[in-house]
Design a protein that fits this description.
The protein is an alpha/beta fold. It has a single domain, classed as Nucleoside phosphorylase domain (Rossmann fold), CATH 3.40.50.1580. Helix content is 28%, strand content 24%. A 5-stranded mixed β-barrel has the order 5-8-7-6-9. α3 packs across α7. The protein starts with a helix and ends with a helix. The relative contact order is 0.21. The structure holds hypoxanthine.
Length: 258
């Protein structure tokens, strides 16, 4: 089964994959059946248990550039481990993907980064205590985890499209509870600009396999304590969905000619 899925992705010929986070799935319109590969058809790929997360790869395109969309990831907070949450990245690398764009929903920690806007990751703090490389003896260099080349390209695309694209550091925690105001103050003092519950382990795995990584946070809310509204998953999903059109424009501009 897995070999068959790998062959299909290989034959499709995409070099870029886009992993869609919470609320961002509507970026992919309902694909024809023969262009979707459910994770259940691939051995070793766990299924998401969370509302708003599907579980499939879609063979699609952005402005005529072939792209594999990963709709739905699994998270540490679902009880999965760091190997489970990165199984999709390993599959994509085996299937010929060379560049991976990781997206997520995150809370803003930076007073200048208003919810509804996007942040490009310049770096991360992996505060999950987990790594997909445990037991692998793999001393991977993460000094440029988020490709400088791609960051320049996306920043230029944002300027050309007149879109606001913040740049900052993403802190990845296990969740699933949102942070306390004290944790939010700690994260700000550590230099984080956004906080979420994914991405770090995937970046580590992707770099270990030599993939080029770009990361984007859809800032769906102020992190806890930065305003008086309580946080809800439904709010995160809605805010994510509303920010899609801008991100699609950014992607189309940045990927043109890839
Ligand atoms: N904290 C952690 N994860 C999140 C948040 C948040 O405020 N918003 C969306 N994902």
């Amino acid at each position: 089964m897995e070999d068959f899925a790998i062959e299909r992705v290989r034959e499709f010929g995409a070099r870029i994959a886009l992993v869609l986070g919470s609320g961002l799935n509507s970026l992919v319109k309902d694909p024809p059946r023969d262009q979707a590969i459910p994770y259940t058809e691939i051995g070793g790929l766990p299924r998401s248990t969370v509302k708003g997360h599907l579980g499939r790869f879609v063979l699609g395109e952005i402005d005529n550039v072939p792209v594999i969309f990963a709709q739905g990831r699994v998270h540490l907070y679902e009880g999965y481990n760091a190997r489970d949450v990165t199984a999709g990245v390993r599959f994509l690398a085996r299937a010929g993907i060379e560049k991976i764009i990781l997206t997520n929903a995150a809370g803003s920690l930076n007073p200048a980064f208003t919810p509804g806007s996007w942040m490009m990751l310049t770096d991360h703090l992996n505060l999950t205590g987990a790594t997909p490389l445990a037991g692998k003896g793999d001393f991977v260099d993460l000094s440029d985890a988020y490709s400088r080349n791609w960051r320049d390209r996306f920043a230029a695309a944002a300027r050309a499209e007149n879109l606001i694209l913040h740049e900052g550091v993403y802190a990845g925690l296990v969740g699933p509870q949102y942070e306390t105001p004290a944790e939010v103050r700690m994260l700000r003092s550590l230099g984080a600009d956004a906080v979420g519950m994914s991405t770090g382990c995937e970046t580590i795995q992707a770099r270990a396999l030599g993939l080029e990584v770009a990361g984007f946070s859809c800032l769906t809310n102020w992190a806890a304590g930065l305003n008086s509204a309580p946080l809800s998953h439904a709010e995160v999903l809605t805010a994510g969905g509303n920010s899609n059109p801008e991100f699609v424009r950014l992607l189309a501009k940045a990927l043109a000619g890839s």
